[in-house]
Specification:
single chain; about 725 residues; alpha+beta; 12 helices
């Protein structure tokens, strides 16, 4: 008999009432049930659930072998989204058959969540391999089949896809905010890198004025290449550390110290085949001691206890434990290779309890959870953790990149489908071409990849290096905007990268647009194919100020690789580019793109950039409004409100501040204001004229925010 629970956020949880074992997933990813309001259930019997959304949705439950199935009639105009990185062929799923099975390259991060334009969503709460058939044979029935587990799924109703995404991520989890430096640039080194070349490359990228925040080392950083064990150590030939110092030191005798002095974060590559489920389950059978019989002629201690085939896992040691010494060295990021995460282990019983079929899909999430929480417990900080393997719930613990598939156009579809499931911190390897650079630097986070190549910017021709420098500086300047959008993703579930059908769901023409996406509230990015279908309204070229409407063929400016357009009626807070995000206090720039038809607003979010205090609502908020009036508009810069406390050095002074103190907010500085698309004749503050400069299609003046206290600044702009 099906059991139904009503949840707080307009959702139903339906299961067979005996799913405690197989729903390992529920306890580790989904929030526990809490009773709330009915969402309009009409009928519930042994094998059928009917709910009211924009239409009556009838779900039939069928028990099949070791698993179960669901069938849902589809309405004629219904469209479907979701599935994560289960397909790179389509964004709208109708007519497709989708496998939910973590696989190398073809299916790195499937997510069994369906969003319907008929006002309902379904989360399949099963870790087993499953298949969703959206009428691939031309029929009008959605068929869902799982290979194992008890009946268990969640239902949601909502007024829009955005509303459904908000409700679904209340259960599956909101995307975490990465540490602020992670929204700059990460450069992954060639495998032949050693300590000296690493430091010279940092010095080179600083001297060549290319903003960069994190440098990553590939498997050769380890003494044993591709070391899966908890005994890994630094490669003595490439990264030798003083023998008279402890393994977890980070002082002036190490290469970690000059890295820190040059403002560079360290990322380390990892491969995993560890049994995480002893730690996850905490309900482990004790080792059984065998008794020697009286008939034994030889008493051999080798036969005293059961033997384990798994030679990697230390049963009572969490995976993160052995990584603490590398965190003490200064590692602030880890890259999780697909490694054996994307392969089946058909002869393995995980945690002496779970079959591989049951936990294969969820392994990447459990790994990310244990690493992120381990780092949090050890440092009180956020970790930049990026994984190629994923499953629903990964957004709570890690970023992802598109795996070993480069940065071509197919990866765009992957990131769009992740976003439709609420996963925000996504990226791919940047391809060193004009189109690849434009795309790769305008993603939620950016990774420049040199694993087996020598495509470092300073080894390229002048034109290519100049383009890399331009886009790296553009990326740096956008960090305040992107970071604010990261907070919005956490608070409101809208991802940083937003598919057009999520933002304009009533416009069917956007259903399978794969060459455009919104980057936050106001920026539209066109990639690869420059035949662009623009949403309604006027869009301003970020590069040259040209104005576009409707369907266009975008003419890429010289030295650029694609389109970057600003929605008319936007306020963007950016900053002057810095060598790295944490180099100094930001010099903010308020970019105003006024609309004479509507008012606009932007709220800048600031916090310490490291801790989880944002989850407690700690941070600073500066609300900026553009309010229309006759003959112009008022630019209102409200006082900064809120606070965050900062942190001491966490007691790691033995390692010379590899985990240094975190400062509370500094005093406000003056901000630069840039007004686009109009030519003010006069600007005043409290009736006094404000000096401004008009050049390169914009009007610039200085907003006197420094030392203003609680004063609201109202700048009157007259046309």
């Amino acid at each position: 008999m099906l059991e139904v629970k009503y949840l707080e956020k307009g959702a139903l949880h339906i299961n067979e009432g005996n799913a405690e074992r197989s729903m390992l997933y529920r306890y580790n990813v989904l929030k526990k049930d809490s009773y709330g309001t009915d969402i309009g259930i009409c009928e519930i019997c042994e094998h059928k659930v009917i709910v009211h959304a924009k239409r009556e949705v009838e779900i039939e439950v069928i028990k099949r072998g070791q698993g179960f199935g669901l069938t849902i009639p589809m309405s004629d105009d219904e469209r479907f989204f979701g599935m994560g990185d289960a397909t790179r062929d389509t964004v709208e799923m109708r007519g497709k058959k989708i496998d939910i099975e973590v696989k190398n390259v073809t299916c790195y991060g499937p997510m069994p969540v369906v969003f319907s334009t008929d006002g309902w969503a379904l989360v399949l709460n099963s870790t087993y391999r499953s298949q969703l058939d959206f009428g691939s044979n031309g029929g009008n029935t959605l068929k869902i089949d799982t290979l194992g587990g008890e009946v268990d799924f969640y239902l949601f109703v909502g007024v829009s896809l955005k509303d459904l995404l908000f409700k679904v991520t209340e259960i599956t989890g909101r995307p975490m905010m990465l540490p602020k430096f992670a929204y700059g640039l990460t450069l992954v080194h060639n495998e032949q890198t050693d300590a000296r070349s690493l430091l010279w490359d940092i010095r080179t990228i600083r001297d060549r004025d290319i903003p960069c925040d994190t440098m990553g080392l590939e498997p050769t950083w380890m003494e044993q290449n591709y070391d899966y064990t908890v005994n890994k150590s630094w490669n003595k030939q490439r990264f030798e550390l003083p023998c008279w110092k402890s393994a977890n030191q980070s002082d002036t005798f190490s290469f970690f110290y000059p890295m820190r002095k040059m403002g560079m974060q360290l990322s380390l590559w990892l491969c995993e085949n560890y049994d995480l489920f002893y730690e996850e389950d905490k309900n482990v059978k004790a080792d059984k001691e065998n008794e020697f019989t009286e008939d034994a002629v030889i008493i051999d201690e080798h036969f005293k206890a059961d033997v384990r085939v798994d030679k990697i896992t230390v049963k009572d040691q969490p995976w993160f434990e052995h990584l603490k010494k590398f965190v003490d060295n200064g590692a602030a990021a880890f890259k999780l290779d697909g490694a054996t995460q994307v392969l089946y282990h058909t002869d393995r019983l995980w945690g002496e309890k779970y079959t591989d079929g049951e936990v294969h899909n969820i392994y990447p999430v459990i790994l990310a959870k244990q690493m992120t929480n381990g780092f949090r417990d050890y440092t009180d900080r956020r970790l930049l953790l990026y994984s190629s393997g994923a499953f629903m719930g990964i957004q709570k613990y890690a970023a992802t990149w598109a795996g070993d598939t480069g940065g071509g156009q197919k990866t765009v579809t992957s990131l769009l489908n992740y976003a439709m499931c609420g996963h925000s911190n996504t990226s791919c390897d940047i391809e060193v071409s004009p189109a690849g650079l434009h795309y790769g630097f305008l993603l939620p986070w950016s990774q420049y990849f040199c694993w087996a190549n020598w495509l470092y910017p300073w080894f390229m021709d002048t034109e290519t290096e100049d383009m890399i420098r331009f886009y790296a500086k553009l990326r740096s300047s956008l960090v305040p905007y992107i970071y604010t959008m990261a907070y919005k993703a956490y608070a409101e579930a809208l991802p940083i990268l937003r598919p057009l059908p999520l933002m304009y769901e009533n416009e069917r023409k956007f259903d399978n647009v794969k060459n455009e996406y919104m980057l936050g509230d106001s920026l539209l990015v066109g990639v690869f194919d420059m035949n662009l279908t623009l949403p309604e309204g006027r869009w301003i070229d970020y590069f040259n100020g040209e104005i576009y409407e409707g369907d266009i063929v975008y003419d890429i400016p010289e030295g650029r690789g694609g389109a970057l357009l600003v929605k008319e009626g936007s306020i963007l807070v950016t900053m002057k580019p810095q060598k790295y995000v944490l180099e100094k206090q930001h010099d903010y720039i308020i970019g105003v793109y006024p609309s004479r038809n509507e008012n606009t607003s932007f709220t800048l979010f600031e916090d310490d950039g490291f801790t989880y205090d944002y989850e407690k609502g700690l941070g600073c908020f500066t609300k900026i409004d553009a309010i229309n009036r006759d003959g112009g508009f008022d630019l209102i810069i409200n006082p900064r409100v809120g606070l965050f406390p900062g942190r001491p050095d966490n007691g790691h002074d033995l390692r010379k501040n590899s985990i240094p103190e975190i400062l509370p907010p500094a005093s406000e500085k003056d901000m630069t204001v840039e007004i686009h698309c109009t030519k003010p004749s006069r600007i005043t503050l409290d009736g006094e004229n404000v000096e401004f400069v008009r050049e390169n299609g914009k009007t610039t003046f200085i907003a006197k925010t420094e030392g203003r206290g609680d004063k609201v600044l109202v700048y009157r702009i007259e046309y």
